[in-house]
Amino acid sequence: ERRISNALRAIGKQDISVNLNSPGGNFFSGLAIYNLLRAHPAKVTVNVLGMAGSAASIIAMAGDEILMASGSFIMVHNASAMVIGNKYDTNDATELLSEIDAAMAEVYAARAGVEKKVAAGWMDRRRGDGTLFGAAAAIEIGLADGRLNDDAVKVSAEATKSVPRERVLENALM
Asked: How many CB atoms lie within 10 A of CB 173?
């Protein structure tokens, strides 16, 4: 999230577009990025190019406008964790996961304009594995606003990606 914060500070009060394709990751990191984007003083457009899953779906909800590319998905589910320990440790983990689930449901519900229990229902499907919303479904329920124009996503087969030598180690450590 530090890199996102620095990038937003460098951009200043300009509109931004966030191209998102991620299966997710750590909820708290996703939440921090969500809040950084929500605090941005200009328009934030989120373009879901492939998958906005799990914590990345929280990031997607930060958009003032959320656009879905053809064939893209938003995936919401209950939080998960690995627990090692005794019954007290598992009870503590259950309590924490329930609190995280409630926070996620609140974000989805606010974006979609539905009651929190409706969003929690999306997350609870398939024993907590959640719901995978294609573009049409995400737009219909309010998790997205519209489709991304196919012309907006162009890939050049001749584009090369060059990583400066000084960034190779940094990228490997991330």
From this structure: 6
- Cβ-based neighbours of 73, under 8 Å, separated by 6 or more: 48, 50, 51, 52, 53, 132, 133, 134, 135, 138
pLDDT digits (tens, 9 = 90+) for 13-53: 999 999 999 999 999 999 999 999 999 999 999 999 999 99
**pTM metric for this prediction:** 0.85
d(CA 23, CA 60): 12
| 3-state helix/strand/coil string of the chain | CHHHHHHHHHHCCCCEEEEEEECCCCHHHHHHHHHHHHCCCCCEEEEEEEEEECHHHHHHCCCCEEEECCCCEEEECCCCCCCCCCHHHHHHHHHHHHHHHHHHHHHHHHHHCCCHHHHHHHHHCCCCCCEEEEHHHHHHHCCCCEECCHHHCCCCCCCCCCCCHHHHHHHHHC
Q: What is the distance of C-alpha 26 from the center of its chain?
A: 10
> How far, CA to CA in Å, does 31 sit from each of 55, 79, 90?
7, 13, 24
